[in-house]
Automatic annotation (TrEMBL), chains A, B:
PANTHER family: GUANYLATE KINASE, GUANYLATE KINASE-RELATED. This is Guanylate kinase. It comes from the Bacteria. Residues 6-184 form the Guanylate kinase-like domain. ATP binds at residues 13-20. It is an enzyme of class 2 (transferase). It is found in: Cytoplasm. Its EC number is 2.7.4.8. One of its GO terms (molecular function) is ATP binding. Pfam families: Guanylate_kin. Essential for recycling GMP and indirectly, cGMP. Its main location: cytoplasm.
Amino acid sequence: MVAEKGILFILSGPSGVGKGTVRKRLFEESTELQYSISMTTRQKRPGEVDGVDYFYKSNEEFERLIEQEQLLEYAKYVNNYYGTPREYVEETLEKGLDVFLEIEVQGALQVKENFPQGVFIFLFPPSLVELKNRIVNRGTESQELVLNRLKEARKEIEMMDAYDYVVVNDDVDHAVAKVKSIIQSEHLKRVRVAKQYKKILEDEIH
Amino acid sequence: MVAEKGILFILSGPSGVGKGTVRKRLFEESTELQYSISMTTRQKRPGEVDGVDYFYKSNEEFERLIEQEQLLEYAKYVNNYYGTPREYVEETLEKGLDVFLEIEVQGALQVKENFPQGVFIFLFPPSLVELKNRIVNRGTESQELVLNRLKEARKEIEMMDAYDYVVVNDDVDHAVAKVKSIIQSEHLKRVRVAKQYKKILEDEIH
């Protein structure tokens, strides 16, 4: 295949949906994905390596990078910053490697704003599918219970509006297979591939 | 999964690229795809069944359907019309089944105009990839030969501009696997899925 830039994939979804499990299984099966390395101001712990576990920065350095828009997203937990460095992601993509970022919904929305060319995958709890079955088999649940669940479902559905794909996590194997098909097919998109082919023509004919 | 309409997939590409072989293998492996049944004015042959091999129509009927824009594409060969009936495709999609159409480039461009919501896959000859390798290993080919090949390649690349995906047919198994990943991931697109989820909410809350 013609050389091509990598793609940034963002896996996100409501807390408790199983993002970490899906990401872990995916990395066991796919050796070509690069995991995005975060940047932090927290103290390096024994055994951790700079540029492997995290990129370690001082508070001043981190805040300067925020000002320079060098973070695709960041947040502060317990007085420490955590974030995704734009430079590391862009350099990895330039090498033709895909970067995979597993992140909470708020972080994903920040990435969407700073890097809209990423591919955003929403991992969805299977409960709405169950809910639908419950509605179909009416009478087995109280109306109040169904209405409460519908309110929650509405929130989850509104969250997915910023995403490109939705994968229901009803089973880890199924969810991983679906994420893999998204990764493969995104590389087959004409807008990406045609650009590369056209570049060969331009380089040679002019 | 929540009930969803089917998707029309169109596989096309330059003649000789191997569309028929890829389609045949795909249908051996995927039982869920419906092959699009064409409409024709040619005589029914012994053993053929109306609505299975073709929909057989008189010349007058076919021309009336053309006027009524009831064909996604059509062409005339040796005094007979051949075309893809819109009604059959739409009814099949409504049942939640995907329709798969293998077709020449000119027909695909007609379908694109009449049914832009289809997913258009361009099967690409592997020769441009070989061409690139030749350019990299310069000196093994005459400059004239490479320039001629580049002219042809330009035509092929311009053809793919109307398509959503490009699959290089360097190997039937690889090409089929890629088409399958496109089919799977298209069903995971948020624009399709979210609509279905939102419908459940509307049906229930209002």
